[in-house]
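Let us work through a complete example step by step.
Step 1: write down the sequence.
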Amino acid sequence: MADVTAHAGEEAEPLPTAVPATTPTVIDDREQYARAVAALAAGEGPVAVDAERASGFRYSQRAYLIQVFRRGAGTFLFDPPALGDFSELQAAIGGEEWVLHAASQDLACLREVGLDPVTIFDTELGARLAGLPRVGLGAVVEATLGLHLAKEHSAADWSTRPLPAAWLTYAALDVELLVDVRDAIAALLKQSGKLELARQEFAAVLARETPEPRLDPWRRLSGLHAVRGQRALAVARELWLARDAYAREVDSAPGRLLPDSSIVVAARAMPASKRELAGLQGFHGRASRSQIDRWWAAIEAGRTTEELPVLRSSEESIPPPRSWGDRNPEADRRLRAAKPAVQSVADELGIPLENVLTPDHLRRLAWHPPAESTPEAIADALRALGARPWQIDATAQTIALAFVEASQAPAEGDESAS
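Step 2: predict the structure and record it as tokens.
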């Protein structure tokens, strides 16, 4: 791990800026692709992989650039829309360990083009488990390699063609340093006795299934809490559905066409005509006027439908903890007792609380506890929720003790206990 600290009273020396070993270019034809695949197959050790999407610009989450690095082979930037089929690359590297930073963000779009690892090393997750205070790739590169990594193009529109040279440099460095980072983090994990638990976490990321689509995705509209009444909610729903369909049709990020705030404004105002909608203050966006007929049709559908949405979604199986004190005081006491206990475990391990145990697992366990609060029963319940073996070993007994203490504590306002 690089020593980049300055002595007291001294200013830290600026870190050298990372530069790619060669000038990066984009591979967008099959002949270049075949040569790159052969080189990667002949390389050695783990394979660093990254993908760039166009989130915030396009509707799809497809990869518009895939970067691959392997020692002895070099760095290769592939153009997925131009190449299409990646079966040869999968055959060449699929059985090797892949190194990714925040793997869960890229696995879906890599699998979409047929690239799917059998084992991974996630440097972002590994950095969390190792106790690094900042886990963005730039910060991890600084901490482990002592290099400055410029990250100014992370939110760029990677569907742009041709891609600017500065973006290609950024993309190449995202993988060119990653194997060295992997080795440094693996050493830290081994030194602190966390390498095995890290392997369990990496395997869990790889095995995690794509979540089922939400029952009512329109309820994720930002600001929807300000929309009152079933009829207004119906209008918000129809506007969201119309926007989503149009965004899919033109492959644009929905919010670029019509922001959430515009949908909320229209649902609250309930305009009586298309003209009133067009003149509504706060109703704006790239397609707010060009698609005014579409939005007005959605509003009319919401105003006349007999399928009114319920005021609250039933998708959430347990209520938010802030309401537990009134709705389920026993569960509230269990959660209040267990949270600081698990936090103590996290502090002792030097691992963030959310990585020691998924917060939702603890909430569900407190709301629906096993019949007996024994370590064995708690362990079985955690296992059923999907907790990893190391998490169960670290927390089951602690949670069991906290639940027992909570059951023995007098309820608030109970003055009979001395």
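Step 3: interpret the result. The chain has a mean pLDDT of 93.
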